[in-house]
Design brief:
Elements: H1 30-44, E1 52-56, E2 67-71, H2 77-86, H3 95-113, H4 120-126, H5 159-171, H6 177-180, H7 185-201, H8 224-230, H9 243-253, E3 265-267, H10 268-287, H11 291-308, E4 311-313, H12 317-338
Parallel strand pairs: 1-2
Antiparallel strand pairs: 3-4
Helix pairs in contact: 1-3, 3-5, 4-7, 5-7, 9-12, 10-11, 10-12
């Protein structure tokens, strides 16, 4: 079967209801990846449980089901481009990345299918499932209590995510988790529990087999344009007073005694915009600051740099990039841990 993405029925797809775009998993790059993932499950000894897959608005597993939702934009490259343009960060840009998300979501499927969240030892390692689920969680980077799988220290968000991240690390082929987490006793204990529990469940039929499609692509009446307009991130909490920091970065780099006067000067805003894509992903991975927030922050910095007409010498571009990266990472860390960029 071909894995080529199907064409849209009309060129101007952005104004059509998403349900009318004819999006399916079969015939796209997702189908062979699902088959590869199912083979991984068999190799991991998960024999009695097979999840259902469908296209939805985001990655997720509705509580009490065995259904894995895949973001609809991953079913067509044009939609991936639209998502990247509006959101910036694509959760599943490569085949390896998509498999990483499959493994994480399968952790939720296992948890709900076998009701592991009621197991006393599960609660001992991961906590209570009734703990409030907070979107703007504040992780402790490099904590040895948790495994690292998805970016943003995602295991620290909630006990359910902690288990799913642990499961994902456990089932990743050739992950060598015992060696990797040998110096992290609490994370290793969670992995050892997962290993024991999955061995116990190898021949057990799941307790739950509910299939409920949450926000299925076939029911989405909004258009692509409306969908991204609805999910736009507000910028009202951006920091004020960035002018002085940007002057410090670029005017120090532009001092005549440290750069030949004939070296070309480039606009600082162009550099900031070029750094946007990589910084969104990397800052999220290492601080937990959401990519969409980093994008807004960088775009505001670029606007201010233009207003101030900030430039830098081309022969010091690496230093400029390092300075911008360090500055943005510091702001992001403040936001994640204090709830404010400049607190």
């Amino acid at each position: 079967m071909s894995s080529a993405s199907p064409p849209f029925h009309e060129g101007n797809f952005r104004s059509k209801p998403i349900r009318d775009l004819g999006l399916t998993i079969e015939g796209t790059r997702l189908a062979p990846l699902i088959r590869q993932f199912e083979q991984e499950l068999r190799q991991a000894g998960v024999c009695r449980l097979r999840p259902e897959f469908h296209l939805s608005t985001e990655w997720g597993v509705p509580f009490g089901t065995i259904v894995i939702g895949i973001p609809f934009y991953l079913a067509h490259p044009e939609l991936v481009e639209v998502h990247a343009r509006h959101v910036g960060h694509v959760e599943g840009v490569s085949d390896a990345d998509i498999l990483r998300y499959f493994r994480h979501e399968m952790g939720h499927v296992v948890n709900y299918a076998y009701k592991l969240y009621n197991d006393e030892e599960w609660i001992k390692h991961f906590g209570s499932l009734t703990q409030p689920y907070v979107e703007d969680y504040r992780p402790a980077p490099f904590s040895t209590r948790y495994v690292v799988h998805l970016p943003g220290w995602y295991a620290q968000k909630h006990p359910d995510e902690d288990w799913s991240e642990t499961f994902a690390v456990w089932m990743t082929p050739e992950s060598d988790w015992r060696s990797r987490y040998a110096g992290w006793p609490k994370a290793l204990a969670k992995l050892e529990y997962c290993d024991r529990k999955m061995a116990e469940l190898a021949d057990c039929e799941p307790l739950v087999s509910e299939v409920e499609l949450d926000e299925d692509v076939g029911e989405l009446a909004v258009s692509v344009e409306q969908y991204y307009r609805r999910d736009a991130v507000e910028s009202e909490d951006l920091p004020v007073g960035l002018e002085g920091s940007l002057r410090a970065i670029f005017e120090d780099l532009g001092r005549a005694e440290e750069s030949h006067p004939e070296v070309p000067r480039h606009a600082a805003s162009e550099l900031i915009r070029r750094l946007e894509q990589s910084l969104m992903a990397d800052v999220y991975r290492w601080t937990g600051h959401f990519p969409e927030r980093t994008r807004l922050l960088l775009r505001r910095m670029a606007e201010i740099a233009d207003e101030l007409q900030q430039v830098y010498p081309l022969d010091r571009e690496v230093e400029a990039a390092v300075a911008v990266t360090t500055f943005v990472t510091s702001l992001a860390t403040n936001y994640v841990h204090r709830g404010s960029y400049l607190a």
